[in-house]
Each structure stands twice: as structure tokens, then as C-alpha cells.
Design a protein that fits this description.
CATH topology: Udp-n-acetylmuramoylalanyl-d-glutamate--2,6- Diaminopimelate Ligase, Chain: A, domain 1
Largest sheet: 5 strands, mixed
Shape: globular
CATH superfamily: NIF3 (NGG1p interacting factor 3)-like
Number of strands: 5
Number of domains: 1
CATH class: Alpha Beta
Radius of gyration: 16 Å
Strand order of the largest sheet: 1-3-4-5-2
Number of helices: 4
Length: about 120
């Protein structure tokens, strides 16, 4: 998914806002090109396979859930990378799907799981 912010933002401020919104205690990032963020590419989960597509699409930042160490190399001049954690990047999926199902199938009985399935812990 690619979107455009209403106003361009400082890269560090943007990543801090993302971390706060998604409850991320340790958002991993590359150095990045040091420009303002306006065009945002996002893929929840293990989205590293879309990194080159985000660059081709002219995104200023690529947000995803997980990415291998070596994929960070070679992108500092082209795109800011923010990696928030697999679970953290997908945590709102249940709510989004519930909204869609409620709208499209109002007669459908729905039960949303509230079980946290994230096996990863962060030492603070």
C-alpha cells in the first residue's frame, strides 16, 4: 500500500509517530537519505520482498514488519526503511477485517479474538 501524507514530515519525527501509534519499543531503521517523508509505502508482516517496488514507486519511506539484516544495505541514498516487528505491523488486521465483514455481511455473527499471539518479547 502506498499513501501520501497531508504534509511532509521530518523522517525521525515520522518514525517516532509510527512507533508510538503501533506500540513499538524498538523500531529498526536504516540511515536513509535524510529528506522529508511524504510518500509512504507499507506492507505488514514480512514485506521485505516489496522494498525495491517501494523505491520504484517513489516512496520516501518503506514500513514493514520484518526484514533481513542484509536487505538494509544499499538503500541509504534512495529510501528510509522502518521495521516495526511482524506482529506489531499486523495487530490491527482483526479490527479492519471485522469492520469490512460487518459492513458487507451485517447478519453474520462475528467473534473477535482478543488473544495476543506475539511470541516475541522486548527487554527494556
Amino acid at each position: 500500500m502506498i499513501g501520501v501524507l497531508p504534509e511532509a514530515e521530518d523522517a525521525t519525527a515520522f518514525l517516532n509517530r509510527v512507533a508510538n501509534l503501533f506500540g513499538v519499543k524498538a523500531l529498526r531503521r536504516n540511515e536513509g537519505p535524510g529528506r522529508l517523508v511524504n510518500r509512504v509505502a507499507l506492507c505488514g508482516g514480512a514485506g521485505e520482498f516489496l522494498l525495491d517496488e517501494a523505491v520504484k514507486a517513489g516512496a520516501d519511506v518503506f514500513l514493514t514488519g520484518e526484514m533481513g539484516y542484509h536487505r538494509y544495505f544499499g538503500y541509504d541514498d534512495s529510501i528510509l526503511i522502518g521495521v516495526m516487528g511482524h506482529y506489531e505491523s499486523e495487530q490491527y488486521t482483526v479490527e479492519l477485517l471485522d469492520e469490512i465483514l460487518a459492513k458487507e455481511f451485517p447478519q453474520l455473527k462475528r467473534v473477535k479474538s482478543e488473544i495476543v499471539t506475539n511470541p516475541v518479547r522486548v527487554n527494556e
